[in-house]
Specification:
The radius of gyration is 20 Å and the shape is globular. The chain has one domain. The protein has 13 helices and seven strands. The two termini are 17 Å apart. The protein has a five-stranded mixed β-sheet with strand order 3-4-5-6-7, with helices on both faces. It has 310 residues and is an alpha/beta fold.
């Protein structure tokens, strides 16, 4: 995946100096999606027109960043009932590159069709999934509660299910798209040490290495899943934390590899590509929404066609 000519990026108003190669392509792909639909261009934080954004008032009124009635309804529901949820309005409504609307676009149809959700998730984790009983967004069992991780960590997507032979389980999913996993380090809490030790799945001599980019967020999300399993009053028989990302996002791919090196037991952790999830959905339904989602987020051939014309 090479660099895109700067003049092509400027032509579509997506020339951002700090972007890596994947971010360049992802940003251009979102601008092409916006242009195909005749949607107005938004502006960057500095006020410059940016092809991968929508104008705020228009975007919030029309819900144009959400691709189906179900995803728009789910997003509006979560915004109305924030209750500590990490819903960032600019990322949700304006930013076409954001993983937050992607989470709604990818899983909201499954939320309202739980039978479909079960069939899809069984393709990914056949030994775990029986029936899917619930899907939620920006979910935490209790923010700031010491029973869990004593912070505001949550799952982008949360699935409750039965196992094929009975019993209750959950899958907590972190959704990424163009992110480079750069973030301000979290304030370390004593509870992190307690949960990390009690989970028993980390190599003891590598635990301090979890407190760094690009894997700190993976660790914190994984700890949330681990703390839920440690809460015996909840009655969970299985739990899994999943990191979901596009296969060409090299930063995310490297982070997964690095994180796995810190694990002595990976039974509560998995990573899955966006391509694999989309393919699993396509294997179970030919609905227009999943074709349109693939075209929007994974339609790299559009860029190749542009490059071939130059």
């Amino acid at each position: 995946m090479g660099d895109i000519p700067r003049e092509l990026l400027r032509e579509h108003r997506v020339s951002v100096r700090r972007d890596n190669r994947f971010q360049q392509r992802a940003r251009l792909l979102q601008a092409l999606w916006r242009e195909e639909r005749g949607l107005p261009i938004g502006r960057s934080e500095s006020g410059i027109p940016l092809g991968s954004r929508l104008p705020r008032e228009f975007a919030e009124e029309k819900g144009a960043n959400l691709m189906t009635d179900a995803s728009l309804a789910a997003a509006r529901r979560e915004v109305a009932a924030k209750r500590g949820r990490v819903i960032e309005d600019d990322r949700l409504w304006e930013n076409l590159l954001s993983s937050q609307p992607l989470a709604f676009n990818l899983f909201s149809e499954l939320e309202v069709h739980l039978d479909l959700a079960a069939r899809v998730l069984r393709r990914l984790w056949p030994e775990r999934i029986g029936a899917v009983t619930r899907i939620a967004f920006e979910h935490s069992p209790g923010r700031g509660i010491s029973t869990y991780t004593d912070d505001g960590t949550s799952f982008d997507v949360y699935v409750e299910h039965t196992a094929p032979l009975g019993g209750r389980g959950f899958v907590g999913i972190e959704v990424k798209y163009q992110e480079d996993l750069r973030a301000k380090r979290a304030t370390h809490r004593p509870r992190y040490d307690e949960v990390t030790t009690a989970m028993g799945c980390f190599k003891p001599d590598l635990i301090l290495g979890l407190r760094r980019e690009p894997i700190e967020q993976l660790w914190r999300d994984h700890m949330l899943a681990g703390s839920m399993l440690l809460d015996t009053s909840a009655g969970w028989e299985s739990g899994l934390y999943v990191f979901l990302y596009p296969e060409d996002n090299k930063v995310c791919r490297a982070a997964v590899q690095l994180y796995r090196e810190h694990l002595s037991d990976a039974r509560t952790f998995d990573a899955v590509t966006l391509e694999a999830v989309v393919a699993a959905i396509e294997a179970e339904t030919d609905a227009a929404w999943i074709r349109e989602l693939r075209a929007r987020y994974l339609g790299w051939e559009k860029i190749e066609r542009l490059l071939a014309k130059r």
